[in-house]
Amino acid sequence: MASTQDAPVSVYGAPSPHGDLSTTGVRGWAARRPLTTFLVIALGASWLLFVVPVLAYHRVIPGAGLPIEIFALAATLLVLLPAA
Q: CB count, 10 Å around CB of 79?
């Protein structure tokens, strides 16, 4: 029976960071932080889309009778789906 002291020691390098570190700018930031990029795009664009019914409700812009479901569907199909 072999003892554990005779077994060769395996050394593994550190895992590589996410994304290409040589890429700079917005593309490099997005490659290094994909989840953060998705959340910034999805939440930011959705909030901008949902500002429209809020402004209409407070009579800043016309259209106070628009149902919120239209904006929820638009946020899903036009923002969340392409961002994913």
A: 19
